[in-house]
């Protein structure tokens, strides 16, 4: 299994990436964020994750009416996925939907550019476009998975796709050279999972227990979600 972040780090010419980081620092186009800190991103800009991870969240603003007939807006956030180190992202404004980005880990470094800034690095521009095409293809798979009728199928399909994208291999102390499976590098709450698959935290907790009892998932360390090495054949 090959993750997106590993592939990106391997393929990107180090000198080009370093030039972009140096350029961003010279032009005050980089910033370090703490865990769960909101990224002040805006439409029209390109963002690159230098290190750490970004959590993308979508909100649908719904108009409600109070007893005084005064409009009120409530946001219902849904987890939309991660952007790992070495990957680009952008936020597109489309009313009544709002996309937001948060640092999912401490010491998350983000660089931002205007699209025309990429004219300085034409090879890197092509890589960015390839990354966005890959992300688009993955989102089509997400939509297919989230269209499953049974909540259990949506949950397992979502975890499988997510770990395929950002997962890392894990081993145990007894056999450090044997890959037992792949896990999420960062924790994800049952509420966040529920917001993605259209379910509740309580239901996700119950179904996660069912997947564990069948040996389809495990948890490790700080409740990191793991899939066994042969999960794609199960």
Describe this structure in words.
The protein is of the alpha+beta class and 234 residues long. The chain has 2 domains: 140 residues, Sandwich (Jelly Rolls); 87 residues, Arc Repressor Mutant, subunit A (Orthogonal Bundle). The chain contains 6 helices and 12 strands. The longest helix is centred in the middle third of the chain and has 25 residues.
Low-confidence stretches: 1-13, 63-75
Mean pLDDT: 84
> Would you list the SSEs in sequence order as H and E?
HHEEEEEEEEHHEEHHEE
| CATH class (first level) name of the largest domain | Mainly Beta
**What is the structural class?**
alpha+beta
- Describe the main β-sheet briefly: 4 strands, antiparallel
Strand content: 25-35%
Shape: globular
The end-to-end span amounts to: 15 Å
Count of domains: 2
State the helix count: 6
Share of helical residues: 25-40%
Sequence of strands across the biggest β-sheet:
1-8-3-6
Using the 3D structure, state the CATH architecture of the largest domain: Sandwich
Which features does this protein show?
12 strands, Jelly Rolls, 2 domains, alpha+beta, disordered N terminus, four-stranded antiparallel beta sheet, Arc Repressor Mutant, subunit A, 234 residues
In short:
It is built from 6 helices and 12 strands. With 234 residues, it is of the alpha+beta class.
């Amino acid at each position: 299994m090959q993750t997106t972040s590993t592939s990106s780090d391997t393929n990107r010419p180090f000198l080009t990436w370093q030039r972009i980081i140096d350029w961003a620092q010279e032009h005050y186009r980089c910033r370090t964020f703490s865990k769960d800190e909101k990224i002040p991103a805006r439409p029209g800009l390109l963002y690159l994750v230098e290190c750490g991870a970004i959590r993308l969240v979508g909100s649908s603003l719904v108009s409600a009416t109070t007893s005084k007939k005064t409009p009120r807006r409530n946001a219902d956030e849904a987890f939309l996925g991660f952007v790992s180190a070495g990957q680009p992202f952008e936020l597109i404004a489309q009313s009544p939907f709002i996309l937001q980005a948060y640092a999912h880990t401490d010491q998350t470094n983000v660089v931002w550019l205007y699209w025309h800034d990429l004219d300085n690095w034409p090879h890197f521009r092509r890589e960015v476009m390839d990354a966005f095409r890959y992300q688009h293809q993955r989102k089509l798979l997400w939509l297919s998975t989230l269209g499953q009728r049974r909540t259990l199928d949506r949950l397992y399909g979502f975890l499988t796709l997510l770990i395929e994208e950002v997962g890392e291999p894990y081993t145990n102390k007894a056999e450090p050279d044997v890959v037992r499976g792949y896990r999420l590098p960062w924790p994800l709450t049952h509420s966040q999972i529920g917001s993605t698959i259209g379910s509740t935290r309580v239901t996700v907790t119950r179904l996660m227990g069912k997947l564990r009892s069948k040996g389809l998932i495990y948890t490790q360390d700080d409740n990191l979600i793991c899939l066994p090495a042969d999960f794609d054949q199960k």
